[in-house]
Specification:
The complex is a heterodimer. Chain A has nine helices and four strands. By secondary structure, chain A is α/β, with parallel strands linked by helices. A four-stranded parallel sheet of chain A has the order 3-2-1-4. In chain A, helix 5 packs across helix 6 and helix 7 packs across helix 9. The longest helix of chain A is centred in the C-terminal third of the chain and has 21 residues. By secondary structure, chain B is mainly α. In chain B, strands 1-3-4-2 form a four-stranded mixed sheet, sandwiched between helices. In chain B, helix 5 packs across helix 16, helix 6 crosses helix 10 and helix 12 runs parallel beside helix 15. The N and C termini of chain B lie far apart (61 Å). The relative contact order of chain B is 0.09. The chains are: A alpha/beta, B mainly alpha. At the A-B interface, helix 1, helix 3, helix 5, helix 6 and helix 7 of A face helix 4, helix 5 and helix 17 of B.
Chain lengths: 177, 377
């Protein structure tokens, strides 16, 4: 269910914060091709602490320095993802940045692995048929030789549980058509 | 230009105009890279990027998806103000967005559609002060508000009728109400004193229980109708919060053998009823227990005013930054996997990195446990 080799790693905001918190962010940027959706890159509001933006998570600056890659989806494609999610997961509310990430994966499934520690976002990804594009942060770091203790939301077991439930929802929705 | 892009541009222009912003102002507020960005997007000389649309949606208080809807799918929702501030439309859009978010967390937590208030059946324009008072009494009994209605009014509105109550610091304007698919909403100026807020809640409740006719009166744009409704709302509020039977019972118990009552007793009664001393005094005038002249004399009396001011110290309750019920429901939706953490931070209007601190303000420590379920036979 999870990729053994990371492609370009597309992280959501919480995964970026977790990586930063466990002091693996700089190493990850150096050793892998790390991407973030444009909405995450330009929504500094995610990362403020006491009104200040930690320099290490000044994502627009990291993009300028070519340490981080910004990827964007067409708003129309995000709208399609939104519509599809409302159809198959009406009781699910994920952020526009997460929808954009899913739209990016949907447009380029061979290029991106999505990293999120959020059950709602992971389930949504699986329900739309992109389980193969999910990878846990712990695994992604291990594959580049970084072993860090982190919250369980960013480990394989948690990821697999919600990929499974999302896939089940997908099967149900396909059988209803 | 594709039809979809045309729809986005038209929506952007409509919302920007409604918010009273120039193209440059909107670009600046949204933090776009260039102040000419909005101009070029509206001219159609360049396409809009997802991140820009997201930031514009935040400033204009709409969902990103609403940019791709036709105008008739997204007509503004009516909001009725006691005294509208400048740029009322922008505040209304923010308020309506919050009400929609509140209803969304209720849906995610499987809370059924809100109960509706009984709508006033007779003609509102025929209502006089006496009928307004009677109506207030019937609502007070229906809601079971008890002897000190202000003490339970807000909780009853929120818990029993899912009224979405938000507060905002406003330099002008007092309160507003609205009704739509999300149920009822009340916006309160957090700068007003708690007793002033209580009166406004009762006043707004009148508008909500007469909503259909109130909206018709606003639509007619008749100043006389509006003025009449506002006066009825004040009479309603006064009767609701200061029930005659209880006020007179309390007054009687405090009279000395000469039929006099101390300033302190009057001030304390106002605090107990959760209203301003002014509201209490005028209520006594309405109940013919005090003459108008005596009321005016009292309200200008320095000793009385000084006692009134001192009684307020220590009783000032700050308005909550967000409704507690809303925060608890949003957290529940997140914990159950119906809402992502990024979305929760958005709903709670805080940074993702500060989310845990924000939750702690409401007594919530984010539970990190993996297996949090048990089978019940």
């Amino acid at each position: 269910m999870t990729n053994s080799t990371p492609k370009s790693l597309l992280l959501d905001a919480d995964a970026i914060i977790e990586c930063y918190t466990v002091s693996a962010w700089d190493s990850l940027l150096q050793k892998a091709k790390v991407c973030a959706s444009s909405i995450v890159v330009h929504n500094e509001a995610f990362f403020y602490v006491n009104g200040r933006l930690p320099r290490a998570i000044d994502l627009p600056q990291l993009v300028e320095q070519a340490k981080l890659h910004e990827v964007s989806a067409d708003p129309i494609d995000i709208g399609r993802i939104d519509k599809e999610l409302k159809r198959i997961l009406p009781l699910k509310e994920i952020h526009e940045g997460e929808k954009e990430a899913i739209a990016i994966v949907a447009a380029n499934p061979d290029r991106y692995s999505f990293i999120s520690g959020d059950k709602a976002a992971v389930e949504a990804l699986a329900a739309l048929g992109y389980s193969e594009n999910a990878i846990s942060l712990a695994r992604a770091l291990k594959l580049i030789g970084i072993d860090k203790e982190m919250r369980h939301q960013f480990k394989d077991r948690y990821l697999n549980r919600y990929l499974e439930s999302g896939s089940a929802i997908r099967i149900q929705s396909l059988s209803r058509r | 230009m594709s039809n979809n892009n045309k729809i986005i541009i038209d929506r952007l222009r409509t919302l920007r105009t409604r918010a009273g912003l120039t193209q440059r102002e909107l670009a600046r507020h949204a933090g776009l890279a260039s102040e000419q960005s909005v101009e070029k997007i509206e001219e159609g000389t360049r396409s809009i990027k997802a991140a820009e649309l997201y930031l514009l949606a935040k400033v204009l208080h709409v969902e990103m998806a609403s940019f791709m809807k036709d105008a008739d799918e997204v007509a503004p929702i009516k909001v009725f103000w006691r005294q509208p501030p400048a740029q009322a439309e922008a505040i209304e859009d923010e308020f309506v967005m919050k009400c929609k978010n509140y209803r969304r967390v209720e849906e995610l937590c499987a809370i059924a559609s809100p109960k509706t208030f009984p709508e006033y059946g007779d003609c509102l324009m025929d209502m006089n002060w006496s009928k307004a008072g009677e109506y207030a009494n019937s609502i007070r009994k229906l809601f079971d508000l008890g002897k000190w209605p202000a003490q339970s009014l807000v909780k009853t509105l929120e818990d029993d009728f899912s009224v979405k109550i938000f507060y905002k610091d406003m330099e002008e304007g007092s309160a507003a109400s609205t009704q739509s698919d999300f149920g009822y909403g009340i916006l309160m100026n957090s700068k007003e004193a708690p007793w002033r807020r209580n009166f406004n809640f009762a006043h707004e409740l009148f508008h909500l229980v007469t909503w259909k006719q109130t909206v018709e009166a606003i639509d007619d744009k008749s100043e006389d109708s509006r003025e009449h409704i506002e006066k009825l709302a004040n009479v309603f509020a006064s009767n609701l919060l200061i029930p005659a039977e209880y006020l007179l019972e309390e007054i009687t118990s405090r009279l000395d053998k000469n039929g006099k009552i101390t300033y302190l007793d009057l001030v304390n009664l106002a605090r107990n009823f959760g209203v301003s001393s002014e509201a209490l005094i005028w209520r006594l005038v309405n109940l013919k227990r005090l003459t108008q002249e005596k009321a005016k004399e009292l309200l200008h009396n320095e000793s009385f005013r000084s006692m009134d001011r001192e009684s307020m110290c220590g009783r000032w309750i700050d308005a909550p930054p967000l409704p507690e019920r809303y925060v608890l429901l949003a957290y529940e939706a997140y914990q159950k996997g119906f809402m992502s953490r990024m979305m929760l931070a958005d709903y709670l209007e805080c940074s993702l990195m500060e989310l845990d601190s924000k939750l702690k303000l409401f007594g919530i420590t984010d539970c990190d446990e993996f297996d949090t379920e048990v089978t019940i036979a």
